[in-house]
Structure formats: structure tokens, C-alpha cells
Amino acid sequence: MTTTLRENLTGRILLVLLMAITIMPFGSLFVTALHPSGTYPSGLSWPADPQWGNFLDAFQAADMGALLHSSVLIVVGVVPASLLFGTMAGFAFGHLRMPGHRAGFLIFVLGLTLPFEGIITPLYYQIRDMGLLNTRWAIILPLIGLFMPFSVLWMRAHFVTMPADLSEAARVDGAGTWQLFRRVHVPLAMPALSSLAILLFLWTWNQFLLAIVLVDDPAKRTMAGALGAFQGQWGTDIPLLCAGALLILVPTLTVFLVFQRRFVAALLQGSIKG
């Protein structure tokens, strides 16, 4: 399909506009963070004397080291477990196709329709009865369960495309089901697994609602969840608040920039396979 010069020009203009709209909030945050602490800057005016020390003050005020440590522990607790359970269930639904797999898979698909906001109240009482309130497990365990529908759907979309001849050849060579899964299909599923791992990392790192509701101690929340406590403490100091918000965004932006090709491939893979 060929495109005309007018279509190319229109597409580029729309792309530039979308980029400007996307970057505008980050630019506003950055400019505001450079204003003197305690002031109320308006618009996107560049300060006469940029206060770069606001970032250091925000880092110390929010205790970013402890927040980073807590977020890493939560990610380590959520992502590997979600990958393991999602891969095993996706293999069972997509390749083994045991009796009742359609009904079971439908239950997981229905799980995608559950919004976090709709289950937060019963989840709060359940976590309280388990004695896990104000612990990192109050975030880790619900996230593993909430990520399962998407993880299973994602990995099933990969395993369902694997040729049956591959498994038959492995079985002729004496491989059992576990060996077939671990030595044949998991190595071939590494592109899908790495894409899923990136998505789960970003969703866990940016988790806000569960961290705010289920954990009172900001030092045990995710970095995004701790932003709520930081806002309550420094909500009247707009430049310091903006500096803290930008510091919290740094790890996520770093991961995105390092793995941006894999991240885009993950989104395209999901759009193609449905």
C-alpha cells in the first residue's frame, strides 16, 4: 500500500501533537520542581534561579532508599511467582488441553473483568482476617492472584501455537509431561516470558491502590504507593512534591528505556494474538 505526501505529512503532524501532549505533563513537573521551595509557580515558566537541590531534599524527605528497597522486595515476590504459575497454567490450557480446560480457561478470562476498585473492600477484610495488614504480603499475595488471568491468557496464546509434532517427537524420545514442559516448551517460550515479565514489573512497581489501602507504613509500600504519604506530608510545597514525583518515576522510566524494544514487541504480540 502506498501513501501520498499529504497522508505522510498529516501523520507526522498528528504524531508530533501526540508526543507534545504526552511530554507536556512531565515538562510541567520538571519545571515546577526547579522553582524555590514553598513557592506556587504557574504555567511552564523557567525559574530565574533553578533549585536543583530540590531533588536531593525530596530524596532525603521521602527516604527514597527505603522505598526503593521495599519496591524491589515486592517486585521480587510478585513477578517470579506470577511467571511460574502463569506459565504452568498456560501450558496446561494451551497445549495439554486436559478435560474441562475450556471451562477452566473461561473462569480465568472472566477474571480479567474484575477491576481492582471493585474488590478492594472485601480484599481488605480478607487480608485483615489473615493478619497480613500493614505487611508487604498484603500487596504481594493479592497481586499474584490479580495478575493470574492476564498471565494465563498471555502464555496460553503462546503455547496454543506450538506444533503438536514437537511434543510427539519429545514423547517418542521418552520425555514425560514435566520434562516436555521444562526442557522443550519453556526454553521456546522465553520471548513471551520476557515480555510478560516486563509488563508485570511495570504494573507491580506502579501499583498504587493496594499499597494505599492495605499498608499504612509508607516504608512497606511500593514507590508509587508511598507517593500518597509524600503528598500528604509535603502537599503544600509544590516544587518539592513535583521533585519527589519525578524521582519516583525514574526507575520505571529507566526500565522502559532499557527494554523499550521488548516492551513494544510485547504490546504488538498481545495485539496480534489477542
From TrEMBL:
> One Pfam match, by short name?
BPD_transp_1
Question: Keywords on this record?
Answer: Cell membrane, Membrane, Transmembrane, Transmembrane helix, Transport
Q: Where in the cell is it found?
A: Cell membrane
Q: Does the keyword Transport apply?
A: yes
Q: Which residues cross the membrane?
A: 12-34, 72-93, 105-125, 137-155, 192-215, 238-259
Question: Cross-referenced InterPro entries, in alphabetical order?
Answer: MetI-like (IPR000515), MetI-like_sf (IPR035906)
Task: Work out whether the entry's keyword set contains Zinc-finger.
Answer: no
> What kind of membrane protein is this, topologically?
Multi-pass membrane protein
Ranges where the ABC transmembrane type-1 domain occurs: 68-259
Family membership noted in the UniProt record = Belongs to the binding-protein-dependent transport system permease family.
Q: What is this protein called?
A: Carbohydrate ABC transporter permease
